[in-house]
């Protein structure tokens, strides 16, 4: 019996095109960097930013430091946000339809992306970030709780904080590693496929 649903954000509720950020950043940060630097960027920069370990200014300055071409702060921010496409209006109706469940949001994200989302919500949907968060009993953002998927700690944190039973909780994410982490924490899961609509996937799962 599913009583609780935890949603990922990116490519579940908000549409992404991650390749756009790869393309835009490559204008400044080399794609073919030495392995030790790539590992540094992946593990020490991007991941640390997602758990609130550095400010936006520190993050932008780090990327500018590694840039092969001169880049302004705004150019780096715009490149980092290029992956963000937007939230279709029908997803809000979908969330409203889930009144029989306790619903939550769990996202690996950062301050820069959420600032973009706030502007997007105001421009396209006449709402603020707080209005979006109100669709959920609680929204958990990695940079604020200082944990990130796929570590089991983040799922255990949410379960404990919200008072949820893992066996009664469904987690929906598009990333296989995140799904594996959720399963290890005892949650039921839906691995959302590429181009698969979350409402349809949930309907099929629940029968």
Describe what this molecule looks like in 3D.
With 207 residues, the protein is an alpha/beta fold. It folds into two domains: 4-15 and 87-206, Rossmann fold (3-Layer(aba) Sandwich), CATH 3.40.50.1000; 18-81, Putative phosphatase, domain 2 (DNA polymerase, domain 1, Orthogonal Bundle). Helices cover 51% and strands 14% of the residues. It has eleven helices and seven strands. It has helices at residues 18-25, 35-50, 56-66, 73-81, 89-96, 111-125, 129-133, 142-145, 152-162, 176-184, 198-206; strands at 4-7, 15-16, 84-86, 102-107, 138-141, 169-173, 188-191. A five-stranded parallel β-sheet has the order 5-4-1-6-7, sandwiched between helices. A two-stranded antiparallel sheet has the order 2-3. α10 links the parallel β6 (169-173) and β7. α1 (18-25) packs antiparallel against α4. The chain is globular, with a radius of gyration of 18 Å. The mean pLDDT is 92.
Widest sheet: strand order? 5-4-1-6-7
CATH architecture of the largest domain: 3-Layer(aba) Sandwich
Shape: globular
Beta-strand share of residues: 5-15%
Q: Measure the end-to-end span.
A: 12 Å
Mean pLDDT reading: 92
Helix content: 40-55%
Kindly name the structural category. Answer: alpha/beta
Strand runs, count: 7
Task: Count up the helices.
Answer: 11
CATH topology of the largest domain: Rossmann fold
Question: Which H/E pattern describes the elements?
Answer: EEHHHHEHEHHEHHEHEH
Low-confidence stretches: none
The CATH superfamily of the largest domain turns out to be HAD superfamily/HAD-like
The major pleated sheet works out as: 5 strands, parallel
Tally of individual domains: 2
- The CATH top-level class label of the largest domain: Alpha Beta
